[in-house]
Amino acid sequence: MNELHSFGWYAARLKPYLPKKAFNPVPARLWGGLAYLLIVIGCLITIGMVEMSPLFYVPLSIVIGFSFASLGFLGHEILHGTVVRKPWLRDFLGAVAFWPLSTGPKLWRKWHNLSHHVHTQHEEEDPDSWPTFDRIKRSRLLCWVYKLPLPIRAFFSLCSLSFQFTVHSLNMFATYVKEFNPKKRPAVFFEMILPWMTWIGLLVWVGPVKWLFMFLIPLLIANVIVMAYISTNHRLNPTTEVNDPLANSLTVTVPKWVDVLHFNFSYHTEHHLFPGMSSKYYPLVKNLIKEKWPERYHEMRFDHALIALWKTPRPYYNSHGLIDPSNGNVYGTLGHGLQAQTIKEQLSTSLNKSKIEEMVVNPNKQFDK
């Protein structure tokens, strides 16, 4: 691939072609959030107050789950400062939007805005990057897991989407809470604990059966939707020492009505170029990128990206290759041989099974890549 450039390099070349209003906050996005909030409240009241067969709660539970996910997408936008700019109002509205996913605004801005966006796809600094094989081989448990056949791992990985965001959010809390100023840590704890207290209180109030449909099933659905996007954002891309969004990010395409419901969250390369811009204007950014650097831009249908994730292993062998530890096959990443329509070993297999086993037995030994 050609020389990498920082997101600032691209942004400086695109900004003159964008309207000035594109860089202003768009508070009208809150109307969509209000609609989702009212839908959630209405469904919760209906399940809580109306006695009927649990089967009748299923469609309401699904609607709540989809609304939870969409509120999360809006919360992501709010906490980037693209909806409102006043810090206290931004954090308050972001907390409300992220309430179903039980993620506090201070933690999210530290984890996502200040770490993930600054160090995207850096194998050590990005908290959301997938591990390299070097890191995996230090753990005998992970080595055993990754020696399972790829289809089995892919199946369990797909199932894990239903809880990945929640688990990762708790892990990020444990990782970053100690980095906050001691005076601010109580607020960070409060923002994490209060949503869970709300949902546990709901369990005590309505009982386990209704709670299952009011919170647990919707949370699993929301996790699947959110993680389906997040998993395709970067996991098919190479890791990069330079934070180049055209190299390390993927935009997925979905029907227009889905973009409306999900606040244009599919435009992920565009978001990494202009995280402080409302996603309302990302279609304009996309057109400009495709005019100026069509050979660099990565775009894939959402379903094709999910299939590609299923068919490719997750550990990075090097910055631009994915390795299947069960057989040593190495696959290319986007820009380095990966083609959505024909997923196969894009790079020549440079490791055989005996070398993989030797890596597991001798994790400290260095091997040529």
From TrEMBL:
Residues 54-302 form the Fatty acid desaturase domain. InterPro entries: FA_desaturase_dom, Fatty_acid_desaturase. Keywords: Membrane, Transmembrane, Transmembrane helix. The keyword Transmembrane applies. GO terms for biological process: lipid biosynthetic process. One of its GO terms (molecular function) is oxidoreductase activity, acting on paired donors, with oxidation of a pair of donors resulting in the reduction of molecular oxygen to two molecules of water. It comes from the Bacteria. The chain crosses the membrane at residues 30-50, 56-76, 154-174, 186-205, 211-230. One of its GO terms (cellular component) is membrane. This is Fatty acid desaturase. It comes from Halalkalibacter wakoensis JCM 9140. The lineage of its organism: Bacteria, Bacillati, Bacillota, Bacilli, Bacillales.
